[in-house]
Amino acid sequence: MKNLLSTLVALFVVVNLSQAQTFSIGTSAVYGDDIEEAGFNLRGMVHLDKHIGLVAEYTTFHQHDEIAHHELEQKRLWEINLNAEYNIHLLKHLGIYPLVGLNYSHELEDIHELTGAETHSYTAQNHDSHHEINSFGMNLGAGIHYELGHFEPFVEYGHLFSDLPQNVFSVGLMYHIGNHHHKPHTKHKHHNI
Question: pTM for the complete prediction?
Fold first, then answer.
Protein backbone atom coordinates (compact mmCIF):
# COMPACT_ATOMS: atom_id res chain seq x y z
CA MET A 1 0.00 0.00 0.00
CA LYS A 2 2.81 2.43 0.90
CA ASN A 3 4.69 1.73 -2.35
CA LEU A 4 1.48 2.12 -4.39
CA LEU A 5 0.66 5.50 -2.83
CA SER A 6 4.24 6.72 -3.27
CA THR A 7 4.12 5.73 -6.94
CA LEU A 8 0.78 7.51 -7.48
CA VAL A 9 2.04 10.71 -5.85
CA ALA A 10 5.25 10.62 -7.91
CA LEU A 11 3.25 10.06 -11.11
CA PHE A 12 0.89 12.92 -10.19
CA VAL A 13 3.83 15.30 -9.69
CA VAL A 14 5.74 14.29 -12.84
CA VAL A 15 2.72 14.47 -15.17
CA ASN A 16 1.57 17.83 -13.86
CA LEU A 17 5.04 19.38 -13.79
CA SER A 18 5.54 18.44 -17.43
CA GLN A 19 2.37 20.35 -18.37
CA ALA A 20 2.65 23.34 -16.04
CA GLN A 21 4.27 26.67 -16.80
CA THR A 22 5.38 27.07 -13.19
CA PHE A 23 5.68 24.99 -10.05
CA SER A 24 6.95 25.33 -6.50
CA ILE A 25 8.78 23.19 -3.97
CA GLY A 26 8.89 23.76 -0.25
CA THR A 27 9.12 22.53 3.29
CA SER A 28 7.61 23.40 6.65
CA ALA A 29 7.70 22.67 10.35
CA VAL A 30 4.42 21.16 11.54
CA TYR A 31 2.63 20.33 14.78
CA GLY A 32 -0.19 17.79 15.18
CA ASP A 33 -2.44 18.15 18.21
CA ASP A 34 -3.58 14.50 18.29
CA ILE A 35 -0.14 12.89 18.25
CA GLU A 36 1.08 15.92 20.27
CA GLU A 37 4.38 16.11 18.41
CA ALA A 38 6.19 18.34 15.93
CA GLY A 39 7.37 17.13 12.54
CA PHE A 40 8.32 18.26 9.07
CA ASN A 41 6.60 18.47 5.70
CA LEU A 42 7.84 18.30 2.10
CA ARG A 43 5.59 19.55 -0.69
CA GLY A 44 5.42 20.29 -4.40
CA MET A 45 2.85 22.57 -6.02
CA VAL A 46 1.70 22.83 -9.62
CA HIS A 47 0.23 26.25 -10.51
CA LEU A 48 -2.61 25.77 -12.98
CA ASP A 49 -3.21 29.52 -13.14
CA LYS A 50 -2.72 32.56 -10.87
CA HIS A 51 -5.40 31.32 -8.48
CA ILE A 52 -5.48 27.49 -8.49
CA GLY A 53 -2.69 25.21 -7.32
CA LEU A 54 -2.46 21.43 -6.83
CA VAL A 55 -0.23 20.29 -3.96
CA ALA A 56 1.32 16.90 -3.16
CA GLU A 57 2.71 16.60 0.38
CA TYR A 58 4.53 14.16 2.63
CA THR A 59 4.48 14.75 6.40
CA THR A 60 6.13 12.81 9.19
CA PHE A 61 5.91 13.40 12.94
CA HIS A 62 8.35 12.69 15.75
CA GLN A 63 7.70 9.61 17.83
CA HIS A 64 5.40 10.22 20.78
CA ASP A 65 6.17 8.38 24.03
CA GLU A 66 3.72 8.22 26.92
CA ILE A 67 3.81 6.21 30.15
CA ALA A 68 0.55 5.24 31.87
CA HIS A 69 -0.42 2.33 34.15
CA HIS A 70 3.07 0.76 33.95
CA GLU A 71 2.95 0.72 30.15
CA LEU A 72 5.03 2.61 27.62
CA GLU A 73 3.01 3.64 24.56
CA GLN A 74 4.99 4.71 21.47
CA LYS A 75 3.27 6.26 18.45
CA ARG A 76 4.70 7.07 15.03
CA LEU A 77 2.73 8.77 12.25
CA TRP A 78 3.28 9.77 8.63
CA GLU A 79 0.82 10.95 6.01
CA ILE A 80 0.42 11.83 2.33
CA ASN A 81 -1.85 14.68 1.18
CA LEU A 82 -3.18 15.73 -2.22
CA ASN A 83 -4.74 19.18 -1.88
CA ALA A 84 -6.19 21.90 -4.10
CA GLU A 85 -5.67 25.55 -3.12
CA TYR A 86 -7.37 28.72 -4.33
CA ASN A 87 -5.22 31.82 -3.94
CA ILE A 88 -6.93 35.13 -3.11
CA HIS A 89 -4.76 38.24 -3.37
CA LEU A 90 -5.37 40.74 -0.58
CA LEU A 91 -2.45 43.07 -1.41
CA LYS A 92 0.25 43.05 -4.08
CA HIS A 93 2.35 40.39 -2.32
CA LEU A 94 -0.01 39.16 0.40
CA GLY A 95 -2.61 36.46 -0.13
CA ILE A 96 -4.78 33.89 1.60
CA TYR A 97 -5.98 30.52 0.37
CA PRO A 98 -8.57 27.93 1.38
CA LEU A 99 -7.60 24.32 0.75
CA VAL A 100 -9.39 21.01 0.38
CA GLY A 101 -8.02 17.59 -0.42
CA LEU A 102 -7.46 13.91 0.32
CA ASN A 103 -5.31 12.31 3.00
CA TYR A 104 -3.74 8.93 3.66
CA SER A 105 -2.36 8.39 7.18
CA HIS A 106 -0.32 5.51 8.60
CA GLU A 107 0.10 5.19 12.38
CA LEU A 108 2.22 2.63 14.22
CA GLU A 109 1.58 2.01 17.91
CA ASP A 110 3.72 -0.15 20.19
CA ILE A 111 2.80 -0.85 23.82
CA HIS A 112 5.43 -2.24 26.21
CA GLU A 113 4.71 -3.43 29.74
CA LEU A 114 7.20 -1.89 32.17
CA THR A 115 8.55 -3.29 35.40
CA GLY A 116 7.07 -1.40 38.35
CA ALA A 117 10.38 -0.53 39.97
CA GLU A 118 11.95 0.75 36.77
CA THR A 119 9.03 2.56 35.11
CA HIS A 120 10.93 5.80 34.68
CA SER A 121 13.97 4.07 33.14
CA TYR A 122 11.93 2.67 30.19
CA THR A 123 12.83 -0.93 31.06
CA ALA A 124 10.30 -3.05 29.17
CA GLN A 125 9.31 -6.66 29.62
CA ASN A 126 8.50 -8.95 26.69
CA HIS A 127 4.72 -8.46 26.92
CA ASP A 128 4.48 -6.20 23.88
CA SER A 129 1.64 -5.39 21.48
CA HIS A 130 1.86 -3.82 18.04
CA HIS A 131 -0.90 -2.02 16.15
CA GLU A 132 -1.04 -0.42 12.70
CA ILE A 133 -3.77 1.93 11.52
CA ASN A 134 -4.24 2.90 7.87
CA SER A 135 -6.79 5.63 7.26
CA PHE A 136 -8.13 7.66 4.35
CA GLY A 137 -9.69 11.05 5.01
CA MET A 138 -10.36 14.60 3.86
CA ASN A 139 -8.40 17.80 4.54
CA LEU A 140 -10.00 21.18 5.04
CA GLY A 141 -8.05 24.30 5.95
CA ALA A 142 -6.63 27.68 5.02
CA GLY A 143 -3.35 29.57 4.90
CA ILE A 144 -1.71 32.94 4.41
CA HIS A 145 1.40 33.67 2.36
CA TYR A 146 3.66 36.57 1.38
CA GLU A 147 5.62 36.69 -1.90
CA LEU A 148 9.28 37.72 -1.74
CA GLY A 149 10.46 37.27 -5.31
CA HIS A 150 10.73 33.54 -5.90
CA PHE A 151 10.41 32.81 -2.17
CA GLU A 152 7.10 32.59 -0.32
CA PRO A 153 6.85 32.13 3.45
CA PHE A 154 3.50 30.80 4.62
CA VAL A 155 1.47 29.87 7.69
CA GLU A 156 -1.18 27.16 7.31
CA TYR A 157 -3.86 25.39 9.32
CA GLY A 158 -5.57 22.17 8.32
CA HIS A 159 -8.08 19.82 9.92
CA LEU A 160 -8.13 16.14 9.02
CA PHE A 161 -11.47 14.31 8.95
CA SER A 162 -10.69 10.58 9.27
CA ASP A 163 -10.26 7.73 11.73
CA LEU A 164 -7.05 9.57 12.78
CA PRO A 165 -8.44 13.11 13.07
CA GLN A 166 -6.25 16.00 14.14
CA ASN A 167 -5.48 19.68 13.66
CA VAL A 168 -2.17 20.45 11.94
CA PHE A 169 -0.36 23.79 12.12
CA SER A 170 2.42 24.58 9.62
CA VAL A 171 5.03 27.33 9.17
CA GLY A 172 7.15 27.02 6.07
CA LEU A 173 8.75 28.35 2.91
CA MET A 174 8.03 27.73 -0.77
CA TYR A 175 10.37 28.38 -3.72
CA HIS A 176 8.83 29.17 -7.12
CA ILE A 177 10.44 27.76 -10.26
CA GLY A 178 9.52 29.33 -13.58
CA ASN A 179 7.24 32.31 -14.17
CA HIS A 180 5.56 32.40 -10.77
CA HIS A 181 3.30 35.30 -11.82
CA HIS A 182 1.88 32.93 -14.47
CA LYS A 183 1.07 35.43 -17.17
CA PRO A 184 -0.92 33.97 -20.07
CA HIS A 185 0.72 33.53 -23.44
CA THR A 186 -0.31 35.92 -26.23
CA LYS A 187 -0.36 34.98 -29.87
CA HIS A 188 1.34 37.32 -32.35
CA LYS A 189 -0.47 38.03 -35.59
CA HIS A 190 1.55 38.23 -38.79
CA HIS A 191 0.34 40.63 -41.43
CA ASN A 192 1.07 40.09 -45.12
CA ILE A 193 2.32 43.11 -47.02
Answer: 0.77
